[in-house]
Amino acid sequence: MTQNTAAYTNPDLLDDSPAWTSFIWLSFGIAMTLMIVGIYYLPVDWWIRGYLYMGTLFLTASMLTLSKALRDRHEYTRLVNRVASARTEQVLSKYES
């Protein structure tokens, strides 16, 4: 509770709401379940099902890795911008005085 309260009082701390996090996990669970069940009931040989299961697994893992990498890049860029802004403010304050 204190973490979410801090996020609302400090604009530098961003946190997703519990409702949004629940929605994301629920959507992911439903999509993965429907994909696995859909592959299971396909009227094809076992090796084709295996190939589709393997593709689903690797695609999901790749998507999670990509989203993590994009999030890390975004946070890094935000940090670099904050440091640059702080340096600019420091230079301007020395110049003004």
Overall description:
This protein is mainly alpha-helical. It has two domains: 1-41; 44-97. The chain has three helices and no strands. The protein has helices spanning 2-9, 18-40, 46-96. Helix 2 (18-40) runs antiparallel to helix 3 (46-96). The two termini are 42 Å apart.
Secondary structure: helix percent: over 70%
Count the strands? 0
Biggest sheet record: none
Number of domains: 2
| Shape designation | elongated
Order of helices and strands: HHH
The number of helical runs is 3
Task: Give the terminus-to-terminus CA distance.
Answer: 42 Å
Supply database-style keywords:
0% strand; single chain; 97 residues; 3 helices; mainly alpha
Topology:
Layout: H1 2-9, H2 18-40, H3 46-96
Helix pairs in contact: 2-3
Pfam families: YiaAB
Keywords: Membrane, Transmembrane, Transmembrane helix
Domain YiaAB two helix: 20-72
Q: TL;DR?
A:
The protein is mainly alpha-helical.
